[in-house]
Specification:
10 helices; Rossmann fold; globular; seven-stranded mixed sheet; 11 strands; 263 residues; binds 7-methyl-guanosine-5'-triphosphate; binds S-adenosyl-L-homocysteine
């Protein structure tokens, strides 16, 4: 909870307004009120954020403690990090699913939501992101959780680095196209994933490790997830699960190879 001054820009001119977070709805209503007050492109600086964020992203900030339970201990996160980070409860569960692995390659690390939970499970993590700021924030956040020594951080493009990498599991949580991904009724991994098609990304991941975990939108085409198992011969065992936070489905994780439960 906070009672604070929220800074934003009106027509490019810095302005501020006192907001009271009595509850999440009230803050959202206040932000909504600003709509006539600050233009579509204006951003809002909220407590605990290093950078200002667009008002459509405020909903993710309101759930900041479900993203990082230690948010108030100095977690660093930017706008993309805020809407992309895997909620802590889900990241913990995914890490537990990969038990038995020694080295996990987190190909799209972001601000470290998954890398930190893998390291908390005592796995060695190779954490890659193309954006140097994400890696700076991920390293800092791993220090907050006391696990930075179990993670090797690399700034780079996963596709270019792949031939130099080897591990037991590759964890894939690529950009889905921003929060607007939800506008499409069904999420097509072939055409909607960035920076490459979901199939080609999966094939590259299999050159790095025999098991792959794929974090995808809850609207993903489940037939495509089963087709992925056929890129290998014999087909890979796989398992698909829905991921929930407080009874709300947030995403889907598909596990391929040894990490899939053999039911
Ligand atoms: P969401 O689907 O955008 O919102 O993000 P939500 O919580 O369903 O909003 P509501 O208003 O419908 O309730 C849900 C979760 O998906 C986020 O917390 C992230 O963990 C993950 N996520 C969302 N996006 C847009 C991305 C993305 O681009 N990449 C990755 N890797 N994860 C994302
Ligand atoms: N799982 C992460 C969120 C990942 S968001 C977490 O829990 O924090 C997706 C990330 O992929 C973004 O940070 C983006 O910078 C990164 N990215 C995009 N293209 C990439 C590429 N070619 N190689 C490596 N990282 C990439």
């Amino acid at each position: 909870m906070f009672n604070g001054v929220v800074k934003f820009k009106k027509d490019g001119i810095p302005s501020k307004r006192v907001l009271q977070e009595r509850d999440a709805n009230r803050l959202l209503a206040e932000v909504h009120l600003m709509e006539g007050f600050c233009s579509e492109s204006d951003k809002i600086l909220l407590p605990g954020m290093a950078d200002a964020i667009h008002r459509d992203v405020v909903k993710y900030w309101l759930r900041r403690y479900s993203l990082f339970s230690r948010f108030d201990e100095g977690i660093k996160i930017d706008e993309e990090g805020l809407f992309s980070v895997t909620p802590e409860e889900i990241a913990k569960h995914q890490a537990a699913h990969c038990h038995g692995a020694c080295t996990v390659i987190d190909a799209f690390t972001g601000v470290g939501g998954n890398a930190i939970q893998f390291a908390c499970m005592n796995l060695h993590v190779i954490a890659i992101d193309i954006d140097p700021k994400k890696i700076e924030y991920a390293r800092h956040n791993a220090e907050v959780y006391g696990v930075a020594d179990r993670i090797d951080f690399i700034v780079g493009d996963f596709f270019q680095l792949a031939p130099t990498l080897k591990g037991d599991v590759v964890f894939l949580s690529p950009p889905w196209g921003g929060p607007e991904y939800i506008r499409a009724e069904k999420y097509d991994i072939e055409t909607m994933l960035r920076p490459a098609s979901g199939f080609s990304l999966f094939k590259v991941a299999l050159t790095v490790a025999p098991s792959v975990a794929y974090f995808l939108p809850r609207t993903v085409d489940l037939d495509q997830l089963s087709q992925l198992s056929w890129v290998s011969s014999p087909p890979l065992p796989y398992e698909i699960e829905r991921n929930y936070v407080r009874d709300e489905v947030k995403a889907v994780t598909a596990y391929y190879g040894k990490i899939a439960s053999q039911k």
